[in-house]
Amino acid sequence: MATEIFFDGLCEPQPGGIGTYGYVIYSGGEKIREHCGFIGKGKGMTNNIAEYTAVVEALKWAQAHGLLKGEAIIKGDSQLVIRQLQGSYRIKSKTSKKFFPVISKITAGENVRYEWVPREENSEADCLSKRAHEDYAMKMVRG
């Protein structure tokens, strides 16, 4: 069975806010990993950076655990990021361009494909990116 990786990124406020990501990995239909994290904040932070960071972090983990050896399907609700990774859209942004070589290196020689999914089908990754955002915001409030 295929490995399915669902990813999501968040930047609030957009642009220049707090950037977070989340991803969920299924192998053989079983959830084997969910993770979220803080990326950064301030000038230069965008939703696209958060989305691409989610893809990179998920792929790194999947590669380290041998999950890219079979078929891997990367799923996200960012039509822009998915279409860019599929090669349908050009990557124009300098910040987005820096992620492409990293992703290409991780997936080189692997059977990886990218698939856009509606937001409703990406709710787990979406909740994780929101949780990371809330956790960071609460940490800042507490000092």
How many beta-strand segments? 5
State the assembly state of the protein chains. single chain
Q: Note poorly predicted spans.
A: none
- What distance lies between the first and last C-alpha atoms, to the nearest angstrom? 45 Å
Write out the strand line-up for the largest beta sheet, numbering strands in chain order: 3-2-1-4-5
- The average pLDDT score comes to 95
**Major sheet: size, sense and barrel closure?**
5 strands, mixed
Q: What can you tell me about this protein's structure?
A:
With 143 residues, the protein is an alpha/beta fold. The chain is 41% helix and 31% strand. A 5-stranded mixed sheet has the order 3-2-1-4-5. Helix 1 runs parallel beside helix 4. The radius of gyration is 15 Å and the shape is globular. The protein starts with a strand and ends with a helix.
What is the compact description of this entry?
This protein is α/β, with parallel strands linked by helices and 143 residues long.
Keywords summarizing the entry:
143 residues; alpha/beta; five-stranded mixed beta sheet; 5 strands; 31% strand
